[in-house]
Amino acid sequence: MNKMPTANGYFGIYGGKFVPETLVNALGELEKAYNAFRKDRAMRIELKSFLSHYAGRPTPLYYAANLSHKCGIEIFLKREDLLHTGAHKLNNTLGQGLLARFMGKKRLIAETGAGQHGVATATVAALLGMKCTVYMGNVDMKRQAPNVARMRLLGAEVVPVESGSGTLKDAINAALRDWVKNVRHTHYCIGSVVGPHPFPMIVRNFQSIIGKEARSQMYTQVGKNPDFVVGCVGGGSNAVGIFSAFLRLPKTKLIGVEAGGFGTKPGQHSARFAMGRRGILHGCITYVLQNKDCQILPVHSISAGLDYPAVGPEHAFFHDEQIVEYVRCSDSEALRGCLALSKFEGIIPALESSHAVGYVLSNRKRFKGCVVLVNLSGRGDKDMDIIAREAKL
Amino acid sequence: MKGYNGLYLMGNYPTPKVFIDAARLGMEYFDFLEIGIPFSDPIADGPVIERAAMKVIADGHRVADIFKSIEKISCPSSKKIYVMTYANHIFARGNGTFARMMKSAGTSGIILPDVPSAESDRFKKEFAPFGIELIHFITPENTYEQIESIASSASGFLYCISIRGITGSRFSLESEMRKKIAHAKKFSRVPVVLGFGIRDGVTAAIALRVADGFIVGTRAIEILETGGVGKLSQFFEELAKHCM
Ligand SMILES: Cc1ncc(COP(=O)(O)O)c(C=O)c1O
């Protein structure tokens, strides 16, 4: 099914390996090891076993009856928020953690924005007995403090990154620098479908379980494919994960939701497709928010996990080919989505996932009478401070 | 100084005037200059050069402004000036725009630390019509076969990154790397120049024993920050003394 990316790591004109020469052979070794890992029966069984008995897969597909009746839309939620550690990120870190061990690496490093990927990496490091260092922007450390404590409890070292904007992109810079120094014994467990090849491919494949499950659950519960599949897009891993099972179906429309923030000026949003243009950041060609002088722009989102100036190269390809439609959801629409789901369904979503919910609720007319599958990528515990403040609880 | 040595400076840092003065002084001691064009996300740079880049951007200097300064140092001199920057500046501008700016500023080559040889073709094609050389790298991670192919097609000079690390890292030279440098020298038609971690006369002299030259960067920026062009000149004298 997935002929993408090409052998050189390209999705159409997007992707590639724009990294220091020092990392090129490591990326080659990673790809080779990954191909062996995929074919290794014992590894497949071990990953599958961890995914079900440790992480809690399959996650439920839940028909949100109350919300559906209120809006006149048939809303189904893929409950990645119920996965161990509270977000879809664990699908990827379990895979990459086992892959790292398969390669004989003793140390995992990761970047994190919302802290969910950091927690998921620290969790797997604890599980597999590996060392773990997580880079996190100092701004994000403040707004996602509970996750910082969780990572430390799990035995990871959390390194604050103060350069640049102190958010996700700077954490990736720091992780890449660490990897250049320690490439011999360290695996960089990247948290989304971003970075140089083969990462966008590996992370997509580990996350594709979301889509596989959701498609068969839709069949069992509804007997047909959804009319729409909606996911929020930070780097794009949860979205690609669920989209991967619904690509190019004539009757199913795929919608990726970017963070619209609070305005359209630079620094007020993270809408790469709406406001960005082609560039190279963190190892790949993709859509990037940058100024006229080709410097990367500051970005904003109420959710730390969507606060990123670039996007996975496969999404850039999907965008140009019109395989996926990319839309925006503002901070306040996302917050309204979060409140509605909490109040009517008793589910507190992560602010990232709230963008997918918020977009659907803010555009009810468009979805009237349709079956809409929303990827609920994570739960909102980590965001309680922000939600309480913004919603004046 | 003995060898084929380069000085790295960040364009327009700390100010255009001090940068130009430092660059002119550097021309008297070094065989080429490497001028950094700041990028907001410099993944191959350590904290010193990153901070310098951020200041230049924050001070409002655009890429075109930095090329104007470079033009002032390139005119009277016959020494080569290389530009070091990141792929986005070239790719996002497209259409040879960056190469054209380089050409009219009198620079002769480009160093792109986030473009490995496997991705270099599109950049070579973009720069070739302007006669601008794309500098190749070798690192401790490269195999002997890779070094052979990278070195034999190198032009300008061959940039040898002696350590696994970023700019400003501590100097070291594994015995394996010494062998790899010797291997590169066998196949390269241009000087093999060692960079990353050279910060005083001692490390520079070591570099000259294994390679054809060295590049000093982070230490020069630090000295320029604290002591200005005056202290920088003392630093160059010290390097020269160790490298006679
Ligand atoms: C719950 C949740 N959803 C979504 C994201 C965004 O990442 P991606 O676009 O890779 O799914 C994050 C990132 O931290 C997250 O924590």
In words, what does this structure look like?
The complex is a heterodimer of chains A (393) and B (244). Chain A is α/β, with parallel strands linked by helices. Chain A folds into 2 domains: 10-52 and 89-200, Rossmann fold, CATH 3.40.50.1100; 57-86 and 208-391, Rossmann fold (3-Layer(aba) Sandwich). Chain A has helices spanning 21-39, 41-54, 65-71, 89-102, 116-128, 138-143, 145-153, 168-182, 199-221, 237-243, 272-275, 313-320, 331-345, 351-362, 364-367, 384-390; strands spanning 10-11, 14-15, 61-63, 74-79, 107-112, 131-137, 157-161, 186-188, 228-232, 253-261, 277-281, 284-288, 325-330, 371-376. In chain A, the strands form 4 sheets. In chain A, strands 3-4-14-9-10-13 form a 6-stranded mixed beta sheet, sandwiched between helices. A 4-stranded parallel beta sheet of chain A has the order 7-6-5-8, with helices on both faces. In chain A, strand 5 (107-112), helix 5 and strand 6 form a beta-alpha-beta unit. Helix content of chain B is 48%, strand content 14%. Chain B has helices at residues 16-29, 47-58, 63-74, 87-93, 97-104, 121-127, 144-152, 175-187, 201-210, 218-242, and strands spanning 6-10, 32-36, 80-84, 109-111, 133-134, 136-138, 158-161, 192-195, 213-216. Chain B has a 9-stranded parallel beta sheet with strand order 5-4-3-2-1-9-8-7-6. In chain B, strand 4, helix 6 (121-127) and strand 5 (133-134) form a beta-alpha-beta unit. In chain B, helix 1 (16-29) runs parallel beside helix 10 (218-242), helix 7 runs parallel beside helix 8 (175-187) and helix 9 crosses helix 10 (218-242). The longest helix of chain B has 25 residues, at 218-242. The A-B interface holds A 8, 16-26, 163-164, 169-170, 173, 176-177, 180-184, 277-283, 285, 288, 290, 293-296 and B 38-44, 46-47, 50-51, 54, 57, 62-63, 86-89, 91-93, 113-119, 137-143, 146, 161, 164-166, 169. The complex binds pyridoxal-5'-phosphate.
